[in-house]
Design a protein that fits this description.
The chain is α+β, with helices and mostly antiparallel strands. The chain is built from nine helices and 19 strands.
């Protein structure tokens, strides 16, 4: 089997079909990369009265933001108690709270889009079960919404407030709203050079006071100065035809987060992970699904979940992992900030940092990004 990189389960409707940028434009803010992180920055900047131009190398939502697992999770990539150990209790708590607040904002913006069922972390070994206990204890100590869980999926942690959503539709809806509000957005406009106040695409040029680079899985190639801080990985998924063989009421994270699945309202299962099974080969910019990882996902689907429904989708996309597991929010060149390095969990964090940079530039309010800045 050599799987091809097909449409994600989420692909719906016709593409937006926006034009490519040709010629010169000027703006207050130029956003490079129109996944959910970039689009959130665009929307917030427009809301604050700025003239905004956004460009993407491909289609809007064509990167990880429209092709992911659809989990909306609070927190950083490390589990809460690990984040406390790494970043200190006060800072870990502050960062977690910031993501909880961001989920509230996302839900307030698009209430119909998010299903807030909570999420499960399920242990697959005794060691992991003990780790789940540590997670619950640390979250309780800091008054965060989690409890021990013992149910049909297994034992672990139930985190309240998390949820699921349709990632591609969210990107589409954000782009539509940004266009209505006056943003200028361009597809098929690969950025080839960024300098202070200037962004160059294959056929165009934008001058802008502030530039935000929100290209997550392409950060290290577009901004080589970040190559020591982030590493690009391929994440893979599959999905099935609608089925009622199982009932999965909440998204599940299992095996230390390496595997994850959810069931859509129509019964389809979306299952991702097994990056560890793929080994070092998964540290790549290539987005072609592989037989090794897809085979492991299929085995999980059949044996762990007990689902026999036919597989209808197989896909992959790029993300970047940051070396210290803190997301990247950094001024890399004069007037040029980069966000990314979400280590596989950027749906909430990317929006938080995109929004945060718009506020910082346009209102001088850096409260959203401050907890994530490195010394
Ligand atoms: C299979 C998979 C499952 C995942 N599951 C989850 C999950 O359940 N929950 C979660 O929170 N996170 C998940 N993630 C991670 C999450 O999808 C990402 O962290 C998040 O989508 C990043 O969004 P973004 O907007 O920053 O980047 P992206 O969506 O990757 O967007 C970056 C954009 O930049 C564009 N670009 C790249 N280079 C250039 C250039 N030179 N010029 C112009 N544009 C450029 C790309 O075309 C792309 O559209 C998953 C990721 C994958 C791949």
């Amino acid at each position: 089997m050599t799987p091809s990189n097909g449409a994600a389960l989420w692909a719906t409707g016709a593409a937006l079909g926006l034009p490519a940028l040709e010629g010169e434009m000027s703006a207050d803010v130029c956003v490079v990369g129109l996944g959910a992180s970039g689009l959130t920055c665009v929307r917030e900047a427009v809301r604050l009265g700025a003239r905004v131009v956004g460009v993407d190398a491909g289609d809007i939502g064509g990167g990880a933001a429209g092709r992911n697992g659809g989990f909306m999770l609070a927190g950083l990539a490390p589990f809460y108690h690990d984040a406390v150990g790494r970043f200190g209790r006060d800072r870990a708590r502050t960062m977690y709270q910031a993501t909880l607040d961001e989920i509230e904002r996302i839900v307030a913006e698009m209430p119909a889009m998010v299903s807030r069922t909570g999420s499960l972390r399920i242990a697959e070994s005794r060691d992991e079960e003990a780790d789940c206990e540590r997670q619950v204890a640390a979250m309780h100590a800091d008054d965060l919404p989690a409890e021990r869980y013992d149910g049909p999926e297994g034992r672990g942690v139930l985190v309240h407030g998390d949820g699921t959503f349709q990632p591609y539709e969210r990107c589409r809806a954000m782009a539509d709203a940004a266009l209505r509000d006056g943003a200028a957005l361009f597809e098929q406009s690969r950025v080839t050079g960024i300098a202070q106040g200037e962004v160059r695409t294959q056929q165009g040029r934008i001058t802008a006071r502030h530039v935000v680079v929100a290209v997550d899985g392409a950060l290290d190639t577009l901004l080589p100065e970040l190559a020591a801080d982030v590493r690009t990985a391929r994440l893979q998924m599959l999905a099935t035809a609608p089925t009622r063989e199982v009932h999965v009421p909440r998204p599940v994270y299992a095996r230390w987060g390496y595997d994850y699945w959810q069931q859509r309202p129509d019964g389809a299962i979306a299952l991702g992970g097994a990056r560890d099974v793929g080994g070092d080969a998964e540290w790549t910019h290539d987005t072609m699904p592989t037989a090794v990882v897809q085979g492991a996902l299929e085995q999980r689907l059949r044996e762990r979940l007990g689902v026999d429904a036919p597989i209808t989708h197989r896909w992959a996309a790029s993300v970047s992992y940051s070396m210290d597991e803190l997301p990247i929010v950094r001024d890399v060149r004069d007037g040029v900030w980069a966000i990314g390095g979400y280590s596989g969990t950027g749906n909430v964090m990317g929006s938080l940092l995109g929004r945060g940079l718009a506020r910082k530039f346009l209102h001088g309010d850096d409260s959203l990004v401050r907890p994530f800045l490195r010394a």
